[in-house]
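INTERNAL AUDIT FORM
Audit reference: QA-55
Scope: verify that the stored structure record matches its stored sequence.
Auditor: D.O.
Record contents follow.
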Amino acid sequence: MMQVPNALVLIQSGSAPFAAAGWMERLLIGPIGTSLAVIAVAWFGLGMLSGRLAMRRGALLVLGCFILFGAPVIARGLLNLAGETGGSRPAPVALTITPPPPAVTAPPAFDPYAGASVPQGN
């Protein structure tokens, strides 16, 4: 009887998108992801040895595997870097509201924009 690894069936409680992302992470970095990466590197290695694939493609594959399996460490490092550079919220500041000045009841007698066509109140 085949036993299913715990990494494939273990789902965390909480919100569904985060649980799905965690499940995908465990799936890709677990034994299935490692097996697929080994098969891909072997397949590309045979292709490079036979001259059908360029060296650059093989190097990109190996670099992609390093990024895939190092993603949790890279993400943790970036989050720590963001926390050190002031990524956290500052402490709340008490808000003081000043009332507006009282409204002017009568308009001023002199109007500089009235022009020559409007008689002055002198």
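Auditor finding: record pair retrieved intact. The CA atoms of residues 105 and 111 lie 16 Å apart.
Action required: none
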